[in-house]
Amino acid sequence: MTTIKLHNTKTRQKEVFEPINPKNVRMYVCGPTVYDRAHLGNARPVVVFDVLNRLLRHVAKENGWEKVTYARNFTDVDDKINATALARKEAGADGTIEDLIQERTDETISWYLEDMGALGNLEPDFAPRATQYIPEMIEMTQELINSGHAYEAEGHVLFDVRSYENYGSLSGRSVDDMIAGARVEVAPYKRDAMDFVLWKPSSDDLPGWDSPWGRGRPGWHIECSAMTKALFGEKFDIHGGGLDLAFPHHENEKAQSCCEAGEDSFANFWLHNEMLQVEGKKMSKSLGNFFTVHDLLEQGVPGEVIRFVFLSTHYRKPMDWTAKKAEEAKAKLWKWTQAARAALEVTEKIEMNLHSEALISSLCDDLNTYNALRAVDIQADRVLDAPGASENEVQKCKLNASVKLINGLALLGFEQVLEDASNDSVDLANLNKQLSAARDTAMQTKDFSEVDHLKSALIYAGVEVRMSKAGVELIAGPNFDPSKLEAL
Questions:
Q1: What is the largest CA-CA distance in the chain?
Q2: Domain range for residue 25?
């Protein structure tokens, strides 16, 4: 049996993970509000919990778990979404507001799945949209009113935070401290400044649904509570998301779900990843360092590189995206790729479920991806240090399998990404012929000056030069710059 330890935000300590029901290990992660493309910070929790999802599935059989179920939602009812649809309407777009909202959310979800897939993330088993669970939200809201934990006021329904004695237990703050330090909406119909909206009225020009309290739409927090209950029941194993969601979203979600269920349960484990910075500063449009995942991909940064940079920092520490880290990640992945070359040729002969024990051990220690990457690097060094060894092909397969587990994509796929990029700008085949001819001439004349000149120029441009009795092979490396070959 493989033991997994995870840091539980609820208890402030690392605990051994044991599922509530071994027949179905359940994990829910808060997904995006779909009004625009995902920025780099949005991608970090996706990568973190994709690694956890892969780890849980990897150890499931050994631990006697029948299946792992992973859900990540889409918030498709929100004021920001409404604002984008209204802006399109004012710009002359055809269709009703509802049509334009549907068009925008469908488009944004498609972008999101494409961008996250480029980072090597598996799609979850369930990807519920909030608008698909409005009846469940209305039902839960009514139950909270009936049990005295919520109240109606001027067309709104609000959760009474003072009715839940454990409010603040997740974030570790008292209600009075929260009021003193938080920016809360001041409204005359609230009993307490910290009371939050479960349901609010909608005007005629905005989306709305009929309810016992009039035409309206749900508050943000009730959405995830209703969806998790519908998918997983009142208790499940892991709830994840970015640290910025711990309060107020997850605190409120936990409060209303526990009160609706009548016991202080809900998720057994709460996991939160730290925030992202860019070149040491908070990412923001005002600083000019705000960019989306799509922006990076369009600039030619491979998804494998983005994911590697994310995983090089432990998920509970702030992560700093820098151009230097991206270059280092590209170089490291290239090294691994060269170590694993030809692995695919022997996959039919070798069991591919072979991973470094150090890799699995690191991931089981609260997703220590930094140490996991080091374990893979050691594997790569072993392969490179023992070329031609009888066990080398097996080690290549192990390396490829390890990288696929943590990085989501096979190494040889990364090699193809770089080769495709280089082939768009320069034909290495002609340079290969040129170097081969120079080499043949040098073998006759014993004058290798032209060979050395060509080889130096190729290496300077980031091309890996391999020369053997079989011939010459040129491979565009991770930092290949075709402009440096123009003279050739």
A1: 96
A2: 19-276
Cα 426-427-432 angle, rounded to 5 deg: 125
* Within-domain flag for 179: yes
**Looking at the predicted structure, is the pLDDT value of residue 387 above 80?**
no
Angle at 19 between CA 16 and CA 22, to 5 degrees: 135
47 contacts 242 by C-beta, under 8 angstroms: no
Task: Point out the domain boundary residue: 389, 412, 435.
Answer: 412
> Can you tell me the mean pLDDT for 199-225?
94
Q: What pLDDT does residue 109 have?
A: 97
Q: Which amino acid is at 74?
A: F
- Whichever domain contains 209, its CATH number is 3.40.50.620
Whether residue 334 contacts residue 293, with contact meaning beta carbons closer than 8 Å, is answered with: no
Q: Which CATH number do you get for residue 368?
A: 1.20.120
On average, the pLDDT of the chain sits at 87
Task: Calculate helix-pair angle for 303-311, 369-385, nearest 10 degrees.
Answer: 120
DSSP 2-70: ---EEEETTTTEEEE---S-TT-EEEEE---BSSS--BHHHHHHHHHHHHHHHHHHHHHHHHT---EEE
